[in-house]
Each structure stands twice: as C-alpha cells, then as structure tokens.
Design goal:
2 helices, elongated, five-stranded antiparallel β-sheet
Length: 155
C-alpha cells in the first residue's frame, strides 16, 4: 500500500514538473485588422489570438490612438472595456467604436497564464476544492504575466 502511494506521488511529481517546462514561451497576441462601418460611425477591428500552451486571462488595459505628440489613451467606457479568458489555440475578433478612422489605433493587453509546475498543481487543487465547496467553477491564473501591445497600424 505504501509503495503504491509512493509510486502515485512520484508519477504526479514527474507530470507536474514535465508540464512546467516550456522551450520558449509565446504570448497571446492582438492585432489591428482594420475598420468596420457601424450605423453611428466606425469601429476599429482587433483580432485576439492565444497561441500559448496555456489558457490566458486578459484585460484590455488601454485603447490608444496616435497623435502628433505620441500615443494617447481613449477614455474607458463600458463599451470599450473587455476582460476574459482565452483557451489555448483560440481567438476572436473584437470591434471597438472609435471617433476617428484617420489615425492609427492599438490595444494594450494585460495577460496572465495558468501556472505550471508545483504552483499549477496547487492552483488545480484549490480550483477543485472551490468547485466542490461552492458549486461554481473557478479558474486561477497564477502563472506568467505579461503585456501585449498590438501594432499601431491604419488600414
């Protein structure tokens, strides 16, 4: 019995540490695709993509536009605030109403991945306990965090 438990822990230990090694981390990405007409103006269309090996939690930190003096930030509203999660290998388009189509637009994202290694294993245990205790699914994003900025292009 003790030997079986020891082997189980050894297997879990190897799986956790093996999954935690990435050859070279890649980031989620967002790119400016162009403009799309709306009934009351135009929207800048951005494409979000998660090419990482992990789910990514993201938040739009800012939407920016080019001015003669550099980049300025569009004031945040409920219409241009976005927070979400992307599973690995997924993506989606997002249109943001903008007041001007004659300038460059870009988005700045704040991203956090699922943790790997021991931290990822601990997060999975906490998620499971929370789900059993509350009945609600929980996802913990305690891994690598980084910022992504789309290209500031006009089309």
């Amino acid at each position: 019995m003790i030997l079986g438990v020891a082997i189980l822990f050894l297997i879990l230990f190897v799986v956790i540490f093996r999954r935690g090694r990435a050859t070279q981390p890649s980031n989620a990405s967002v790119r400016f695709e162009g403009f799309t007409p709306l009934t009351n103006g135009a929207a800048a269309l951005f494409i979000f993509t998660n090419a990482t090996r992990h789910s990514v939690h993201f938040k739009v930190a800012s939407i920016e536009y080019r001015t003669p003096n550099g980049w300025a930030t569009l004031p945040q509203t409920t219409a241009n605030t976005l927070v979400g999660a992307l599973r690995r290998g997924t993506g989606f388009p997002w249109a943001v109403q903008v007041p001007d189509t004659n300038t460059a637009w870009r988005i700045r994202l704040s991203c956090v991945e699922h943790a790997t290694g021991i931290r990822g294993g601990v997060d999975k245990v906490i998620e499971t306990v929370d789900r059993v205790r509350t009945g609600n699914p929980t996802e913990i994003f305690g891994g690598r965090d980084y910022e992504v900025v789309s290209s500031g292009a006009t089309k």
